[in-house]
Specification:
Elements: E1 4-5, H1 11-15, E2 27-29, H2 33-46, E3 69-72, H3 78-81, E4 93-98, H4 102-116, E5 125-130, H5 134-141, E6 146-149, H6 156-165, E7 169-172, H7 183-196, E8 200-202, H8 210-219, H9 222-225, E9 238-245, E10 248-250, E11 253-255, H10 264-267, H11 275-286, H12 294-297, E12 298-310, H13 312-319, E13 324-325, E14 332-333, E15 336-349, E16 352-361, E17 371-377, E18 381-387, E19 396-401, H14 407-424, E20 429-433, E21 436-440, H15 449-465, H16 474-492
Parallel strand pairs: 1-13, 2-5, 3-4, 3-6, 4-5, 6-7, 7-8, 9-16
Antiparallel strand pairs: 9-17, 10-11, 12-15, 14-15, 15-16, 17-18, 18-19, 19-21, 20-21
Amino acid sequence: MSATTSCRRPARGLFGPRRELGSCPRVRASCPASALILWVGLLAASAPRDLGAATPGAAPAGSAPAIRLITLDPAHFHAALLQREMLPGVDRKAHVYAPLGPDLAAHLTRLAQFNSRREAPTAWELEVHAGADFLARFLSERPGNVVVLSGRNQAKLAHLTQALEAGLHVLADKPWILEPGDLPGLKAALELATKRGLVAYDAMTQRFEVTCRLQRLLVNSPAIFGRPLEGSIEQPAVRMESVHYLVKEVAGAPSLRPAWFFDVRQQGEGLTDVGTHLVDLAQWILFPDQAIDVERDVRVLQAAHWPTTLTLEEFRRATGEREFPACVADSLQAGKLQYMANNEVHYALRGIHVRLLIRWDLAPPPGGRDTELAVFSGSLSRVEVRQGAEQQFTPEVCVIPNSTAQTTELRRALDGLLPALRREVPGLEVVEAPGQFRLAIPPAQRASHEAHFSMLVSAFLDYVRNPGALPAWEQPNLLAKYHVTTRGVALARQTEKPADHKPTHP
């Protein structure tokens, strides 16, 4: 077995010894100077020159009434993406509470890059509170009214609940919980939010993806889709697949993952992590604006999981770490990491059979990227979203008639729905191809993964300003979603590794 190191690097070894830090014109850091001086300098130097002037779309620092952001223990890049743009009515001074370490440093660097980019730079000012007592200080000081959570998932529900108890709204990245035993605590947290008139919102960014929105409209058109089929375990009516890669490059440089990412007790397995989006989309598309009763409407039927095996050299490629950390020591076999990242689950949602496959491989093939597949089967047609090599890794929406005899009638129905589709996506066209119809989406109507976060934050802040506008179905559907993800993983632990789990859509 290889030597192990701690998942959380010691602060002294990374940044040096303690000493006091004076004030900074753009960022105040209540932590050792040697710890954050580099990041303070980056942020101060990168801020736009005219910080005294109001930034379009942002509230001047200290103005009221403003939404004031607190980011708690940011350990995932999604935390920074939520501040990718200046936000209307949001104080540009934000607070960060976190332990001192590389995750905090990475978060500050990302915000510095937003402040220094050439086009539409942001103008965030930060007060950074770094140290082992970050949580106690956050609960004592509470300098804002909205808390952002994104990163280590094991303590996320506890932090979310503490924020609600402190009277703060919460925007939390998925997943909120990893184990079925946390479901009662999740329900209690949602009840607390309702009682106190607070918003606790799950960062379901895929709802803002244009192809998902179009698929939802098509599936709910009786003239195009008919009625949803029930399917079976052998032939599910809904199939969704998501394939991701551990080693990626951004702008020609490797994008490294923190070592703790490979601890499933902290990050979760594939189903409890990225699979959260698939479960959310299944119920959001099939039953729009309807509450799902977890006791009556959901049955988890079958599940399986299996590892992605990493050598030490492959782990180094993914993380930049020299050794396997102590937090994955019990997942090492013969010197290799058995990273339990892959899941399959079959469940019934109001009698409709759903199959989800989530897979993590080491690295994409040359020219390859993440792939997605979503197939919904109705009595008249199938509505598919495919994102693979054939689509040049750009998601596309297709409608496939169940029989060639229905082609003409389906075309007529699509033409009839086109005005509604164009209200959702201006400039959309329906293109006929052999055996199917493709929805041609203008490039200008496509948004990046990063842009989805800006859309999400805008929707969340609208609810913060008017908590009564949060749809009544959000909370029961969130409970149903995490029931599927956590029960699916729990069931998979009782199941032997299946023989083959290659995705339908490579």
